[in-house]
Amino acid sequence: MGEQKKILIVDDEINQGLLYEQELSDEGYDVDVVNSGEKALNSINQSSYDLVILDIGMPDMNGLETLGRMLSVNNKIPVILNTAYPSYKDNFMSWAADAYVVKSSDLTELKEKIRESLEKKK
Amino acid sequence: VLSDINRIVKETQMLCGTLGAGPSSRDEAYRIWDELSRKAATLDYYLEEVNSGNVPQSSLQDLVEDMSFHLRESRNVLTETITTGQYQHIVNGCEHPLVDNEMGKLLVGNEFVTVPLIVKNEVIGVILADNAYSEKPITEESIEELSMFSVPAALAIEKANMLQVFEEKVKELEKAYIALEKTHDMLIRHEKLAAIGEVSAHLAHEIRNPLATIGGFAKSIPRKYEDRTRTVRNAKIIVQEVKRLENILSNVLDFTKTGIPNKVLSDINRIVKETLSVMEDQAASHNVIIVMDITEEKLEAKFDVPQIKQVLINVVQNALNAMPNGGVLKIKTGWCDEDVCVTVIDTGIGIPEEYRENIFDPFFTTNGSGTGLGLSISQRIIQNHNGKLEIKSKKGEGTTVNIVFPVS
User: Is B34 helix (H, G, I), strand (E, B) or coil?
Assistant: First the structure.
């Protein structure tokens, strides 16, 4: 099928990070987790990722700011916003992402969007 | 009745009969004169009589009240007096061209005089007078007396009119004030609802995260339950997140409770020491040095021990949160006049000016997680102890929290 896709998860909640790491590794992806926007930008610089999953509600640099900075460095990388807040959909910055998923215990939608974004990238 | 004259004349251009005073018949006239000659009564006496209703309404009053003239459309002695502002002395009333039938009803004899009522150079009405039953000719002197009388009469009418206008304005203002109060209440309610809306959005976020974690892991466990390490780890995480939700719930409930303090005589110094020992580990992990400036003797006061502990924990927690990379936390206790004083000083990031007003708002938080209820609950607890919780802070330099409450 091709090499394993590398996904970067950015979420300040440790346990959320662990959940996504577990679930997405099970799906066959190579997963890295960081817990801040700052660390995410560093990771992007150091490794090449096929997809970034970005939480919005983070202290210091929130997800949308991180998104902006990320795109100015590399605008080819697909980003999925994964957040507990549905209201950021109104913020036009969020439209720069490839998808907007509201966090839920059901990861079906997130997994679907991941598949779609990776398909498009090919 | 009298006060209507002015406005009616100005607003409607109608001259309306308002007051008719005088005997209804010759017999009544004689009776009155008889009484006047026998009784040495004063004006006050007669005014009292009128006010207490002992004087029956003259039939002249009925006659006058039915009468009205349009200042533009009619033309008679009364309207002339208004428009010219001059008195009119008429001796041949029956034949006079400016005495119409309507006006004529008022007259008994041929001679009469009309005098304008003038206030501030404005004609506000007219007095018509005659010597109906005495049939004495009207002298220059009596016209002058009538004119002199018209001055205070006009003023009194104007005053009464002003008073009525004033009373109406007051009523209008009262109505406007009530409407304003209602609007004000409505605005406050809307603000509260909006605040609740904001608050529930934040609360929803606070609940959604743990729920997503709990649900996500719970779903994953049956898929690979044979992997013991993983299953145990996931179960532990679920427990952690549930605890978090319980915390949020009890914070919210605490916030809504009135929390009447159960005051017991205790030593504040002991409570502070206990609190610090609970927070010791966390302080160490933040690289924070704790400095205690606590008096040797007991600092005794009556307060609700668990509540005040909660306040101290909250304040110390905030201080630690403000020093993620280390710092100094100083706690000082003592007397401030007659009150107990606890001061917590940190060298952390401080509170920016723009948030200063919000820090006591429920659910307000700048550190991403946590319910943001801590300070509002703490403030309420201290207020219930008749005390004050004050915060001084400078961005980048640190924060000082002062807790003061009376001994009992």
Answer: helix
The C-alpha angle A7, A10, A14, rounded to 5 degrees, equals 115
d(CA B313, CA B295): 20
Please state, in angstroms and rounded to a whole number, the distance separating the CA atoms of residues B404 and B344: 12
CB A105 within 8 A of CB A77: no
What crossing angle do the helices spanning A63-73 and A37-46 adopt, rounded to 10°?
20
Would you write out chain B's pLDDT as a tens digit for each of its 408 residues? 333 444 455 666 888 888 888 887 888 888 888 888 888 778 888 888 888 887 777 788 888 888 888 888 888 888 888 888 889 999 988 888 888 888 888 888 889 999 999 988 888 899 999 888 888 889 999 999 999 999 999 999 889 888 988 999 999 999 999 998 888 888 888 877 776 676 676 777 788 889 999 999 999 999 998 999 999 999 999 998 998 888 888 777 766 665 678 888 999 999 999 888 888 888 888 889 999 998 888 888 999 888 898 899 889 988 988 888 889 999 999 988 889 999 999 998 888 887 777 787 776 776 655 567 778 888 888 988 999 999 999 888 899 999 999 987
> What gap in Å lies between CA B79 and CA B116, rounded to an integer?
10
Interface of A with B in 56-75 (CB under 8 A): 57-59
CB-CB contact of B125 with B5 (8 Å): yes
- Residue B341 to residue B402: CA distance in whole angstroms: 7
Torsions phi, psi for B100 (to 5 deg): -85, 180
d(CA B265, CA B363): 32
Of A13, A26, A106, the CB nearest to B209: A13
Exposure string over A74-112, b if 16+ CB within 10 A, otherwise e: eeebbbbbbbbbeebeeeebbeebbbbbbbbeebeebee
Helices (H), ranges, B224-267: 228-256
Contact B208 A59 (CB under 8 A): no
What is the full DSSP assignment across B388-407?
A: EEEEEEETTTEEEEEEEEE-
Kindly report the pTM of this predicted structure: 0.48
Between A15, A84, A106, which is nearest B240 by CB?
A: A15
Beta-carbon separation of A57 and B219 below 8 A: no
**A107: chain B residues, CB-CB within 8 Å:** 216, 219
Q: Give burial (CB, 10 Å; 0-12/13-18/19+) of B398.
A: buried
Helices A108-121 & A14-26 angle (0-180, nearest 10): 60
Angle at B342 between CA B337 and CA B347, to 5 degrees: 130
Counting one residue from chain A and one from chain B, the pairs whose CB atoms sit within 8 A come to 62
